[in-house]
Design goal:
about 40% strand; alpha+beta; Diaminopimelate Epimerase, Chain A, domain 1; 4 helices; about 280 residues
Length: about 280
């Protein structure tokens, strides 16, 4: 099986071109094997680039633990780069089908290849049943999450996948790695949740670390950055247009007042290509 390793701000995935190859029989098991950073290629997960009857292509994304996610902001930028640079779809803008619907992507080219991509991420989802969460509110904004004897103020929303945003004075490993997995698996989130730890630098700039559902901490999370942008406006901490500094690089975010859509702009990088042995591809 041929694959390409790509990343957006260090959020890295193994990509399989299912225009040219068959869809793996068991992508969840394949994701667990190929994502292993010691015994596999090493990645935050697996992304399948598939034909679509509704758009130019379809993206299916699997976390490193094999769970399938609805959406990946950094991943979809790389899908757009692959489609254009490899000549599968020579359009600009592109339309890609995801678990949260069809999204439009504007390509920014350099020397005929995609360097950066702006994604129309659509409208944030505030309905607790659709996020999903057991908290109430439209959205649940600045509500208290109880963990043992401590309570944490959180804001919850969905960008096609669920997010829980916490504001902190300092981004510390013990906070991200201590609270991240506990909140991810908290009963208030029936489908688990991505957890964003946000440090506000000024109304136009934040630092962000993300504990990603099914993968642990990643160097970047596009949907998480979008959620932090929306939460910043909802809580009065930041403006509608911000720059987010993540461990793997920077993302530009805007929650448009005119159409309620969130726009994310960032890089897409192809690292290398290779072949995964057929003997290592799960058959069921």
């Amino acid at each position: 099986m041929r694959f390409v390793k790509m990343h957006g701000c260090g959020n890295d995935y193994v990509y399989v071109d299912c225009f040219q190859q068959k869809v793996p029989a068991d992508p969840a098991a394949l994701s667990r094997r190929i994502s292993d950073r010691h015994f596999g290629v090493g990645s935050d997960g697996l992304i399948l680039i598939c034909p679509s009857e509704r758009a130019d292509a379809r993206m299916r994304m699997f976390n490193a633990d094999g769970s399938e996610a609805e959406m990946c902001g950094n991943g979809i930028r790389c899908v757009a780069k692959y489609l254009f640079d490899h000549g599968l779809v020579r359009k600009n803008p592109l339309r890609i089908e995801t678990g949260r619907g069809v999204l439009e992507l504007q390509l920014h080219l350099a020397d005929g290849k995609v360097e950066r991509v702006t994604v129309d991420m659509g409208e944030p989802i505030f309905d607790p049943a659709k996020i999903p969460t057991t908290f109430s509110g439209q959205p649940p904004c600045q509500v208290l999450l109880q963990l043992d004897s401590a309570a944490y103020e959180i804001t919850i929303l969905s960008m096609g996948n669920p997010h829980c945003v916490l504001y902190v004075g300092e981004l510390q490993d013990q906070l991200v790695h201590g609270l991240g997995p506990r909140i991810e698996h908290h009963p208030a989130f029936p489908k688990r949740v991505n957890v964003e730890f946000v440090q506000v630098l000024n109304p136009n700039e934040i630092r962000l670390r993300v504990w990603e559902r099914g993968s642990g901490e990643t160097l970047a999370c596009g949907t998480g950055a979008c959620a932090a942008c929306v939460a910043g406006v909802l809580t009065g901490r930041t403006q509608r247009r911000i720059l987010a500094h993540l461990l793997g690089g920077d993302l530009e975010l805007e929650w448009s007042a005119s159409n309620n859509h969130v726009y994310m702009t960032g890089p897409a990088v192809e690292v290398f290509s290779g072949e995964w042995p057929d003997s290592e591809i799960p058959n069921h």
